[in-house]
Amino acid sequence: MQASDVRPLPVLKETLNYLLNLLDATEHPFDVVHDFVFDRTRSIRQDLSMQNIVNDQTIHMFEEMVKFHIISHHKLRSCSSKRSFSSVHYLNMEQLKKCLISLYALYKENRNSNSIYKNEPEFYSFHVLLHLGSNSQPLGESLSLWLGRVPSLILKSKEMCFARRLLRLFRMGNYKRFLCTTTTEASYLQYYIIEPYINEVRALALSCVNYCGYKLHPYPIAHLSKLLMMKELDVESFCNACGLETSTDERGNKFLSTKQTNFHYPKEVFPSYCLLGLEHF
């Protein structure tokens, strides 16, 4: 490749802005738009890396590309009912991790000793939240080692404290505080990373209610709605997806009979039930 083949920074910035504006287009399904933008943003990152451009503009561009992959992570979930997007999800997450690695390196190279970039805490929190739901190591090392290299100003930020607290609640199985903390503290980008695990936490809560409840006292669906932070109609659907039956009394009140033995985590992907309090995301 010749030097003339590499696009200068102003051209790359203009191209990225054009691509990101396509995300709001409605002429084509989002997965089609995603594939188009996906390939071209990867090419932009390659051009930036080849020129070794390290400045505030580059940082902003990488932040925008990280946002693209996180928003795609959210929007592609609604496309999965049409056909399988497991490979698309996987590739999108791989590129998100690579973008974060590059962005963290840019932050480090440009950081002054006593200051951090405005968005650094939130973007560092994404790495912590990527540890939800599995024992994987997104950037190839343990989280404790990674945290040991994070500047103290970032570690003490509200964004990082939130992410670390939420991960701890998830691993402890504290479903009530997990859901409440997400509702009150998550930014929309943080929520998009957390979203796939919301229903996993709800299933844990439903399991506890089912196995720990008193058989002669069915659990009101209205109470479950508040506990799981979801609409009552969605609660019924969710219970059924977990193998549990609901009933209705003569007054029209709906209940979950506890001590049912056929509870299971759904074998297929959960429908994307909204989290009450975050409907605007």
From TrEMBL:
It comes from the Eukaryota. Coiled coil: none annotated. Residues 2-247 form the SAC3/GANP/THP3 conserved domain. PANTHER family: 80 KDA MCM3-ASSOCIATED PROTEIN, GERMINAL-CENTER ASSOCIATED NUCLEAR PROTEIN. This is SAC3 family protein C. It comes from Vitis vinifera (Grape). The gene is SAC3C_5.
